[in-house]
């Protein structure tokens, strides 16, 4: 039996991306389709989405919704792979330059509740045959932006007195909870009793994330360790109680890598290609990176790279404290990212103090991300918490040994170069357990020590590159979940 599933998300690579959610939304649907499912995606009509989807045709006129006139649902395809995409056209909500969530002062748009309620509402309409030609059996909503989809579905089921599509809600990051003042509940057109502890209410406010967790039929998150962590008081963000109650409906399914995009043997964004057995090209990539960032062109310097959103989550404050350790040992560090202005300024300041060894660039650029992942010897991901993390998976594929904090998906995907793991041919990177300077510095020292033993370093690189984190196994697990539900 072919299962029809609608994925609901706010970003999708290659159309629009601020982080790993876009990579997942871009790669998981095709992986499911390859395994026989009939999957389509629903996105808000941000300018980059409208510009990137081909052959857009109107599916339905929705009139005035959430105080917004002239809303329409359109359907088109992605040229790269033929994926069918539904797009909500609502110019006054979505036609804004820049970030999909924040204005140019980094402040969330004042009407985010309406902007993303519309996304969830349209998903529930599609489950009521809004498109005469296609009816999903599964609505798979991603993160708080799509969190109201399961709530609107439950409301519609009550109204029709029969079951509609089953819903899956995937938490990519519990730290973003989509919280709004209680008075905005009235604008959402949900039944009054949904504003309750047993519903969307969260400490007197309204939470889209909680709606997804409460009303979905199944909850997944993006790694097994994170699935356990979020059920604890310390890491549950106030939702651990609900998550524990729903523990039997909650599972962790690791994200995958799209090796059609992240493969050093064929990556069109690289200066030179290389493979696990022919690593020479990686040296050329390192030289290109040093040159790009104005660092000394030395091939035997241990080069650390960071590609990251600059938020508290990512732990770069801890890494900044360890810069003297890297400099003292003759290493180099490249940091590329964008985000929190305070972190951006802090990074720039430290870079100023160490111009030969530390280069910081602010911005978001897919090509530069590939250049750094390929050209670095080590990719650092010292996150305080990390639901899955894709950067360390890309680093493994590129033989750039990940240096990570042992939490969430980082703990599930990187094995430390301890003596035992090296002896057992298991090591793939460097893992520190406690989020403290001493732990990070010790991991940095392990990286320098291994780099000094070139044969073992190369063996570890090759092992890293041989790891298979493709979407196959994870797509199968999502399919199994869908089958259980329908
Ligand atoms: P998160 O989703 O929390 O940001 P992930 O590691 O899952 O973390 O995914 C991050 C994704 O965003 C990766 O594809 C990474 O390459 C990309 N990325 C992060 N910062 C930048 C940037 N400044 N420029 C280009 N790509 C970036
Ligand atoms: C979130 C998480 C990250 C995860 C990504 C995709 O942004 O921070 O860990 O890899 O979503 O699931």
UniProtKB/TrEMBL annotation:
Catalysed reactions, as listed in the record: [(1->4)-alpha-D-glucosyl](n) + ADP-alpha-D-glucose = [(1->4)-alpha-D-glucosyl](n+1) + ADP + H(+)
Pfam families (alphabetical): Glyco_transf_5, Glycos_transf_1
Binding site for ADP-alpha-D-glucose: 17
Protein's name according to its UniProt entry: Glycogen synthase
Family: Belongs to the glycosyltransferase 1 family. Bacterial/plant glycogen synthase subfamily.
Pathway connected to this protein: Glycan biosynthesis; glycogen biosynthesis
Gene: glgA
An MF annotation (GO) of this entry: alpha-1,4-glucan glucosyltransferase (UDP-glucose donor) activity
Keywords annotated in UniProt: Glycogen biosynthesis, Glycosyltransferase, Transferase
PANTHER family (alphabetical): ALPHA AMYLASE DOMAIN-CONTAINING PROTEIN, GRANULE-BOUND STARCH SYNTHASE 1, CHLOROPLASTIC/AMYLOPLASTIC
SUPFAM superfamilies per UniProt: UDP-Glycosyltransferase/glycogen phosphorylase
The protein's role, per its UniProt record: Synthesizes alpha-1,4-glucan chains using ADP-glucose.
């Amino acid at each position: 039996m072919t299962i029809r599933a609608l994925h609901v998300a706010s970003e999708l690579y290659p159309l629009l991306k601020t982080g790993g959610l876009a990579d997942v939304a871009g790669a998981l649907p095709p992986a499911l389709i390859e395994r026989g499912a009939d999957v389509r995606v629903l996105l808000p009509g941000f300018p980059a989405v409208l510009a990137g989807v081909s052959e857009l045709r109107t599916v339905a006129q929705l009139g005035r919704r959430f105080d917004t006139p002239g809303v329409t649902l359109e359907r088109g395809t992605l040229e790269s792979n033929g994926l069918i995409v539904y797009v909500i056209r609502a110019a006054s909500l979505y036609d804004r330059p820049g970030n999909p969530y924040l204005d140019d002062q980094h402040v969330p748009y004042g009407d985010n509740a309406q902007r993303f309620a519309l996304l969830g509402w349209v998903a529930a309409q599609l489950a009521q045959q809004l498109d005469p030609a296609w009816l999903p059996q599964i609505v798979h909503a991603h993160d708080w932006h799509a969190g109201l989809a399961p709530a609107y579905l439950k409301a519609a089921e009550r109204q029709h007195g029969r079951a509609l599509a089953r819903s899956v809600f995937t938490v990519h990051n519990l730290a973003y909870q989509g919280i709004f003042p209680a008075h905005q509940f009235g604008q959402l057109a949900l039944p009054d009793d949904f504003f309750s502890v047993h519903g969307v209410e969260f400490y007197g406010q309204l939470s889209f994330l909680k709606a997804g967790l409460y009303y979905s039929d199944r909850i997944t998150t993006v790694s097994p360790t994170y699935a356990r962590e979020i059920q604890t008081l310390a890491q549950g963000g106030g939702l651990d109680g609900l998550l524990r109650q729903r523990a039997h409906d909650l599972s962790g399914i690791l994200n995958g890598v799209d090796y059609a995009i992240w493969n050093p043997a064929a990556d069109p964004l690289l200066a030179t290609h290389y493979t696990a057995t022919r690593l020479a090209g990686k040296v050329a990539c390192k030289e290109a990176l040093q040159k790009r960032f104005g660092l000394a062109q030395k091939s035997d310097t241990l080069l650390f790279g960071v590609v990251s959103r600059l938020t508290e989550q990512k732990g770069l404050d801890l890494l900044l404290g360890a810069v003297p350790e890297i400099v003292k040992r003759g290493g180099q560090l490249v940091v590329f990212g964008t985000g929190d202005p305070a972190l951006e300024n802090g990074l720039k300041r430290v870079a100023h103090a160490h111009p030969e060894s530390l280069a910081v660039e602010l911005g978001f650029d897919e090509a530069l991300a590939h250049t750094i992942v390929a050209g670095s010897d080590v990719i650092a991901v010292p996150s305080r918490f990390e639901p899955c993390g894709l950067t360390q998976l890309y680093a493994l594929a590129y033989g750039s040994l990940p240096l990570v904090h042992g939490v969430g998906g980082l703990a599930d995907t990187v094995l430390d170069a301890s003596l035992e793991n090296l002896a057992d041919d298991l090591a793939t990177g460097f893992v520190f357990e406690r989020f403290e300077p001493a732990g990070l510095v010790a991991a940095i020292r392990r990286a320098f020590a291994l780099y000094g033993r070139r044969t073992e370093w190369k063996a570890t690189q090759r092992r890293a590159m041989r790891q298979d984190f493709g979407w196959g196994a994870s797509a199968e697990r999502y399919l199994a979940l869908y089958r259980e539900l329908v």
